[in-house]
Structures are given as structure tokens and as C-alpha cells.
Amino acid sequence: MENSPLQVLTVPTAPYPDQRPGTSGLRKKVYVFQSRRNYLHNFIQSIFSSIDLRDRQGSTMVVGGDGRFFNPAAIEVIVQMAAANGVGRMIIGHHGILSTPAISCLIRKYKAIGGIVPTASHNPGGPDGDFGIKFNTANGGPAKEAVTSKIFQISRTIEEFAICPGLRVDLTTLGKQMFDLENKFKPFTVEIVDSVESYANLLRNIFDFAALKELLSGKNHIKIRIDAMHGVAGPYVRRIMCEELGCPVNSAINCVPLEDFGGQHPDPNPMYATDLVDSMKDGQYDFGAAFDGDGDRNMILGKRGFFVTPSDSVAVIADNIFCIPYFQHTGVRGFARSMPTSAALDRVAKATKIELYETPTGWKFFGNLMDAGMLSLCGEESFGTGGDHIREKDGLWAVLAWLSILATRKQSVEDILKDHWLKYGRNYFTRYDYENVDIDAACEMMEDLEIMISDKSFVKQRFAVEDKIYQVEKADNFEYTDPVDSTISRNQGLRIIFSDGSRIIYRLSGTGSDGATVRIYIDSYEKEQIFEDTQVMLAPLATIALKISQLHHRTGRSGPSLIT
């Protein structure tokens, strides 16, 4: 405890017009946070001001980030401002490190009013990379639109912020630190906690760790390769997968969190997780997985790099859900996927007579269904999968779910997926990303596209490519009415649905730091031709998608930045 009470200051400031949080918080280039006066302070104050003072007073909040550049400096400001804004206790991960799933776990465990997460998820790090601030509410999940809208409105008119600049926290030492503040009756408490233990304990109560240990280190164990991509998942992989479940230490790579992610893009997909993809090619490993910067996304690979799409991944987990002991006890309340995700999960839901929800992109929509007891398992095509144990997608949970299926079925990843296609048919799926497009050109293209597909004459139109003919059955701008609270989310993506169930979807993404990202999603179901190349099978629909949107002409791009 400090000897003399620490001073609390009210500092004048001026608002910025661009602090609207996207689907995963506020993300900007690092230099924006560093060079614009009080840019970080303004946004943090807007978060605190969005919470009623009575709820804030003496409350508990959780803080921890993915270890990227600017993380320690941001945490210091967050703690200083929390103290000045009446928060009574801060729970912080050791060294300021917490995965996004662990943040959700700790918010729920400590009954905190929320958590502030310094992360830009799968975006690049380092001084020239991205930084972000995300706010999770008391359920452990991302703030809903009503909350983020309130934060944005406050940020546009902010005139001052409260801070305790003399407060210095030691992030390296586990345990409690207490600080006396002027005009405060109770000391402000900071508790530095083990980043992994509470989350690991949660997983122990979900999965059969004895069966997983036998699979990974028993007599007939499989060989696995796990790539943490120098993100926050590294310490969790080492503690849970290696120390507890017996994986050899050398089977886990890139497990030291680095502020620039080793100069790599910490996005677990075949284009960026090249260390993992290359090491899987020769067939020495039976199972591979990669995680993103903050540990909530995952990629699953089988022997020789057999790729499992995130859409197929959640469908396979759904079909084998009782391989996970947690669901044997809780039962299954519902399945859900984001609208752009392929309809593979829908087929499992129909066969098992379990309710299926189609939501906009953003985990907060799943969280609302979970809080109402309507949802058990969900996933997004953007490499996110999770259950109702927390209110975030969870990369390590998804990996343990797959390993539980392997332990039960005693088959390879490829055989499990091919059996799934034989049983249900296959949804071929791809996504084209056009990144850093001029935002005005992108918006204009989307507006013109919406006008075109909204015209009554667009329905029933036919498009022919080679020997394939596709007839439009429905076209709209996706709108979602939440079955829990009846809130309506509009403008969630342009959909063209054809008579055979194939879909083309166009969206402007909200998770980048500059420019616009235009995404085209293509989903097509096949009952018979289930072992073909995805890009070959979807080529006709891709041609139609580009023709309808005139995307290359409108954006000046000759091709996508990324295909997944």
C-alpha cells in the first residue's frame, strides 16, 4: 500500500469522430493510439461512462490482452482510469496476458461487471501493426450493439476523463496490490492472477482429460502439431496440452507470445499458418491446429494437411457432440451459425431435430441465445467455434472437442469428415477477401448491388456458366430479429439464394483497421459429388458473383487478397 493517497485528476480533452467500435471493438493502427493526444484515454473513459456510476462503484473488472505491441502501456492507462472511475478491484492476467476465452471465463468466475481487452485479434502486431480495445460485459461476451452505440455516442462529445496518473502496477508479481486514493474510503485493489489456471480448470470440467491424455501420450498415441503463431495461446498450449495432457514439448511451436507475433500475421488459415501447413505435408503428424493472436480462433488440419473448413468443423462437432462429457450432462439446447457460414450445420440440426439459429456475424448474438438457455454450440466461417461454457469463441476448446471425437471414434480427421459428407452431403464453401479497398468505392458498390438485387425482376433471373444454370429464388439484405429480446439488426449482408440452395453473400467487414474489406462468400451443396476440389466446384458461382457485383471494375482490384 502506498504511504500517501494517490491523486485523482480530471483532465480536459477533445473528442474524435472515428471511435465507433466494430464487431470486435475499436481497431486502429498502433500509431493512431500513440500519436493522437488522449485517443486511448477518450475511448477508455467512454467505456466507463457507458456504465452506470452505481454499477461501477466498488465493482470488479478484468483486464488482459494478447501481448501485442502497446499492450503494457494500454493496461497501465486502463488501470489508472479504472481506479479514478470508481472501480474497486481489477483482475489482471500475469504480465498483462490473457486469452480472450480466459477473459470471458474470469469475468464469469469473479462476477465482474465486465472486462477490457487490449487486442486486435488476428490482425498483425508490432509498431507498424494494429492495436485494439474491446469491451466485454458481465456475461463474459462482447458488448451488444446498444452498448457499443452508447460508447460511440459518448466518445463523440467527451470533454474530460478521470485518471490516477501516479498509480503504478507490477504486472510481473502474482497476488494483490492495494492503493489508497484521495477522497476514496476503500483502497483500490489490483489482483495479478495466473493467466491459465482458471481457464484450464474450466476445460477439465468439460472434457475427459484422462481419455485425451491416453490419446496424446498413451501406448497408441497420435502425433500432433500445434502452432500458437506467437500469440497469447502459447502459454495455454504448453500448460494444458504439453504439461497436463502429455504432448511432447516439441509438438507445440511458436508458443512464446511476441509483441509482433514474430513478424507474422497471427491468423489461423492456410495462407498465414504456413509453419504448420508445411510441417503437416509429409504425413508424420496425425492432427494439426493453429490459433490466432488472442486465442479465440482455430484451424484444424488432418494428416498431410487435410483442411477442415470452419463450417464443416462446427457441423462435425455437432454430429459428435456427446463425445464431450459436458454435453452428456447438460444436453443440447440449440445450434447456431453466422449467416455467411455454410449450411452444413443446418443439416445436422435437421437430422437431430435440434433448433438451428442463423445470426449476423459477431459472437454477441450467440451470447444472447446462450444467456437465454437456447444455445449450446455455435460457429462462424471465420475460424471461430465455441460452446456455452463461456461467451466467446474458443480456439483451444475447439481443438479439445476434435481430439475428443478422435479418441471416441478412433478414426483419422479425414475419415471422420468424409464419413460426415457421405452421411449428410457436402457444402462446398469459400470466401474471397478484398482488403484495404477504397471505402467510398466499396460502399458505392454495395449500395448499387443492393438496389439491383432488391428489384422484383431480379428474382427468377437465370445465370448460366458453362453447363450450369442458376436461378435466383431469393435476394435480400439480411435482417435478424433476436428471438430473445426482439431487437432487430439490419444491413447484415447482401444475400442471393438460388433455387438449388446455393448462396452468394456480400459483406463489408468491420474488423480491419484501415480501408474497407469486401468479402464474398460462396456456399453450394452437393449430395453426390462430395470429393471434388472446392475452387473447381465453386468456380461457376464465383464467376456469377463477380459479374453481378462488377467488383473488379468497381474497386480496381484484379483479384482477392485472400481466399479461404
Description:
The chain has 564 residues and is α/β, with parallel strands linked by helices. Helices cover 34% and strands 25% of the residues. The protein contains 19 helices and 27 strands. The strands form 6 sheets. The protein has a 7-stranded mixed beta sheet, sandwiched between helices. It has a 7-stranded antiparallel beta sheet with strand order 20-21-24-25-26-19-27. A hairpin with a 7-residue loop joins strand 25 and strand 26 (516-526). Helix 2 (39-49) packs across helix 4, helix 8 (209-217) crosses helix 15 (395-409) and helix 11 (310-319) packs parallel to helix 13. The protein is globular, with a radius of gyration of 24 Å. The N and C termini lie far apart (52 Å). The relative contact order is 0.11. The model has no long low-confidence stretch (mean pLDDT 95).
